[in-house]
Amino acid sequence: MQKILTYLKPYYSKMAIGLIIKFIGTIMDLLLPWILAYSIDEVVPKGNVNTVLFLGAVMIVCAITALVTNVIANRMASKVARDTTESIRHDLFWKISNLSNSQVDDFTIPSLEARLTTDTYNIQQLIGMMQRLGVRSPILLIGGICVTLMLDFHLSIVLICLLPFTAILIYIISKNGIPLYTNLQNSVDSMIRTVREDISGVKVIKALSKTDYEKSRFSAVNSDVVSRERKAGIIMSVTNPMMSLFLNVGLTLVILMGAYRVDAGLTQPGKIIAFLTYFTIILNAMLMITRLFVVYSKGVASAKRIQDVLDAPDILRLKPSNRNSSKYHISFDKVCFSYHKGKTNLKDCSFNIEKGKTLGIIGSTGSGKSTIINLLMRLYDVESGEIRISGMDIRSIPLSQLHSKFGVVIQNDILFADTIESNIDFGRNLCHEQIEAAAESAQAAEFIDSLPDGYMHMLSQKSTNLSGGQKQRIMIARALAANPEILVLDDSSSALDYKTDAMLRKALKENFSETTTIIIAQRISSIINADNILVMEDGKISGLGKHDELLASCETYREIYVSQTGGGKIA
């Protein structure tokens, strides 16, 4: 919560002005019952009509002033809450964007989405309510108590006796409420994860007739959310009935004691009327404070979740430069890695790539192909060994500089709901000629030119208005557009026909001869002409060499070749 409060510093002056305005409006509210009591007890018995009219006008002015100042203060509070939350959300998004992949795996994407949306909304509610009710309620409470003490000390004892019970109630509820709302948000994370999975896999769910199964799975997580929310709601819902009980018991006691004191001539009717009004104001202020504690409980739970992300350490730290002379552009030296510190996903991986050469990587699912790329781009850090680019340990290269070397098409890559040109440009301010040249090399120019709007064709969300092959070609064009130093194609031609795939490989060889290319593929035809082919099996290198060499020396490669070609030649 402390880190969240630092975001309020730029708005301290605004909050101070809003506090002053709110204070003036609240004082006006407190003056009204006192003026009414004075009129009834002191002015009306004397029959001074002019004074009565004057005090009535003063009450109208007080009421209008209270209304105007409260509206102004509330608007200022809303703006402060909005702007503060905007800053928090901006920094949170920036932090999430710079988390390492291992940290994202730990937090989980659904949880990060919830922290960016639901949790920031709870923070906005907390900041806004604290400025509105958090200022007004204590002033009404303290001011009301002070005035009632001056009006009639004996009646004030009733109020003073109720305050400890109210304080104990608020303490118990707030102590139990915060953990409940933290658990609720964790449960919401699970529900979001389930919804994301169902929406992403809706076609598979329908194709396999698993709709009922997914309904029951969602029903389970939804019931868990409802159960936790009900539990938190029950605890918090105790506040209003209990405060109403305190209010009604207090009013009853005040009326009984007041009637006795008026009958005994110890006080005046106007004071009793004013005291009842102040008593109601004070108890309503307490009700507002209990509402604040509900919002506070949610806000603190959300603030902790947000702060956990903002305080996440930078684990991909920059190491001192240690360049060595090497004729290779990319070098892996005894690299070992595990995603979850359990099963080793990559073990003793060593290979080299010369500049401008092409490396093909093939292997079964889960063999470690994509892991090599994740480590090369330093999305994860190696556990042991070294990865070097042009003789530089990648851990000594600033991430922005490292990533600018790459043009990448990864598995499950996405296109945005924007024009084709914007998707290829990707915010790099490339000229149209570069975009067209990249599309030509990616074999995408032909189908783009056939579209009515050409490069200005607008893609739908998740680019559902394109075929799988068209999407892959635009993604490849995006990777090629900035003429990268290293091109990575991770299973990026799986939706292309053999002819288009062959034309793409020919274009890469002709137009990007100085670019070091790494192609991860499922089919041998995509990598058969690579300068070297790396065969992965269970996180280890089982073969490295050219196509003909691997056919003779690597059993795993030979099995893949035979299974795909039947032993025949590939054109």
List the helices and strands and how they pair.
Elements: H1 2-6, H2 12-43, H3 49-97, H4 101-107, H5 109-151, H6 153-200, H7 202-207, H8 211-237, H9 239-263, H10 269-310, E1 330-337, E2 346-353, E3 358-363, H11 369-376, E4 384-389, E5 392-393, H12 399-403, E6 406-409, H13 420-425, H14 432-441, H15 445-450, H16 468-480, E7 486-490, H17 498-511, E8 516-520, E9 532-537, E10 540-545, H18 547-553, H19 555-565
Parallel strand pairs: 3-8, 3-9, 6-7, 7-8
Antiparallel strand pairs: 1-2, 1-4, 4-5, 9-10
Indicate the low-confidence ranges by residue numbers.
none
What is the CATH class of the largest domain? Mainly Alpha
Q: What gyration radius follows from the Cα positions, in whole Å?
A: 35 Å
Helix content: 55-70%
Q: What is the count of distinct domains?
A: 2
* Percentage of β-strand residues: 5-15%
End-to-end separation:
64 Å
- Number-wise, the strands total 10
Tell me the series of helices and strands, N- to C-terminal.
HHHHHHHHHHEEEHEEHEHHHHEHEEEHH
From the spread of the alpha carbons, the general shape counts as: elongated
Sheet bearing the most strands, described?
A: 6 strands, mixed
Please tell me the CATH architecture of the largest domain by its name: Up-down Bundle
* CATH homologous group name of the largest domain: ABC transporter type 1, transmembrane domain
Strand order in the sheet with the most strands: 6-7-8-3-9-10
Mean pLDDT: 84
In quaternary terms, these chains amount to single chain
Q: What is CATH's topology name of the largest domain? A: ABC transporter transmembrane region fold
